[in-house]
Amino acid sequence: MTDSVTILGLESSCDDTGAAVVRHVVGEAPELLSNVVAGQTELHEAFGGVVPEIAARAHTEKLDLCVEQALAEAGLGLGDLDAIAVTAGPGLIGGVLAGVMCAKGLAAGTGLPLVGVNHLAGHALTPRLTDQAEFPYLMLLVSGGHCQFLIAKGPDEFTRLGGTIDDAPGEAFDKTAKLLGLPQPGGPSVEREAREGNPKRFKFPRPLLDRPGCDMSFSGLKTALLRERDRLVAEHGGLRVVDRADLCAGFQAAVTDVLAEKSRRALREYMGLAPSEPVLAVAGGVAANQAIRAALETVCAEFDTRFLAPPLALCTDNAAMIAWAGIERFRTGHRDGFDLAARPRWPLDRSAPAMLGSGKKGAKA
Ligand code: KG4
Ligand code: ZN
């Protein structure tokens, strides 16, 4: 095995174009040499969501610039790399294709090996990039398009314990913000309002807590909130500041309770593997929520488990996680040919049944 591996990673599965260089020397902590992300928020703003065609075109325009910048910041040339890693799915197919074609071009031009990476594996392996977490660890992926509990057992070995059967929590935060006239992305705006609100005034449902297992559901919560909003508007002729804050606080408390209780169940199952250093790690934009973080920390303390929350820039979509997952795959001997396909769907746990609604409404993973 090569002692030192340096990989350029590319990410373009949704609305962030990323290029990053990561170096790993066996026995040492991985080194993040650069991590460039070019967002597209302003391109999609007027449409109320990510427009796949606009995203794909922007990735095509930005990818080579991001690669140039990532190499410059790392102080390296293409000749200093050992391989090119790229998100080959799941995601918006046009964007994934743009990244895969760029990576193939670079691999063809330099003769470097090509390594296709699962975007979700990128998120799921991040605790090893940031904190050298040892397998097996428990992972909660909680973003705008995904919500699932995974046990990471190896670079390409994940067991899904459960996930959302409809909306992802980030999606529910975004819809809540929309219903209450708050700015997007909804998570931070709802969290801000919730700080001033009373979480107990409205009794929002805690879906699926009455059922065993780790599956979750968040779409009913949004409907309950809509009903309360309409009742308040009919009663007062509009939403008062206090109503909005209380609605946000009640909604956030319900999401937090569900994530905390399902984390307990996932931890119970994970503890059955008798991990020597138990870890629960989170990834995804929703992990930025302070109330949710605090609740998960409390749950971890109950189980004497370490709680890992990577820095936000490595929790949300980025190419450093792709470069790192590329290094892990590369070290297992994995190489892809020029027939590497862009895959819109690519479940991490191939043995688990397909999730009913996951990813249906939010393509972002
Ligand atoms: O991981 P991410 O950047 O993109 C993907 O969905 O992959 O996550 C974005 C999601 C959005 O839905 C956003 O509203 C949510 O994460 N989010 C939050 C917070 N910050 C971002 N949700 C709750 N509280 C937050 N502070
Ligand atoms: Zn993602």
3D architecture notes:
The chain is α/β, with parallel strands linked by helices. It has 2 domains: 4-130 and 316-331, ATPase, nucleotide binding domain (Nucleotidyltransferase, domain 5, 2-Layer Sandwich), CATH 3.30.420.40; 134-313, Nucleotidyltransferase, domain 5. It is 43% helix and 19% strand. It is built from 11 helices and 10 strands. It has helices spanning 41-44, 52-74, 93-110, 119-131, 169-179, 186-194, 219-236, 241-271, 290-302, 312-315, 320-331, and strands at residues 4-11, 16-25, 31-39, 83-89, 114-118, 137-142, 147-154, 157-163, 279-283, 306-308. The strands form 2 sheets. It has a 5-stranded mixed beta sheet, sandwiched between helices. It has a 5-stranded mixed beta sheet with strand order 8-7-6-9-10, sandwiched between helices. Helix 4 crosses helix 11 (320-331). The protein is globular, with a radius of gyration of 21 Å. The model is unreliable at 356-364 (pLDDT under 50). The structure holds 5'-O-[(R)-(carboxyoxy)(hydroxy)phosphoryl]adenosine and zinc ion.
